């Protein structure tokens, strides 16, 4: 069993990172080339002034009309997207692994705080699942990728919480946590999770069109 643990925290993890990085670069380059081929005005009218101004508004909760019309979704969305980065990056166990592999370390979250934040992520996933099932217009546009994406995040954090509290078979929860996390990393460039990569460009496209061409706000 230790050999399997060494494999999934060693070679398999590095493979996951490489697939994520290579896939991300490919998807970004492909998106740029397609935008250039299909709509050359994207680059002609790209305006960093309008892009940054738009992002400054959209990154503040309830600062746009869209955020204000869905207050609960807005709160859950902001909390979720912040925590799925903060918790893995500043979790003590993860920082220890990076220190072991690369000799790098940085400040970590107190374990009790990280535990609470991980539980919050699990609750956010529960809300997203409920919303996709209970809201007809959302359920209509929900595909298998959406279920797989939120399910993978849910399994990653829930198994991590269970392993930390040693609820259920510890090794199985630990392995499930690691494998689900690696699966999520790999799927980012190839599923709708790619919005993590395209967010800047999509916001830039809309902001430039509205600001530099239509001369109106996009928030």
TrEMBL record:
UniProt keyword Transmembrane present: yes
InterPro entries: NarG-like_sf
Keywords: Membrane, Transmembrane, Transmembrane helix
Record-annotated membrane-spanning stretches: 12-30, 72-96, 116-134, 146-166, 172-193
NCBIfam families given in the database record: memb_anch_TmcC
Protein name: Nitrate reductase
Organism: Desulfocurvibacter africanus subsp. africanus str. Walvis Bay
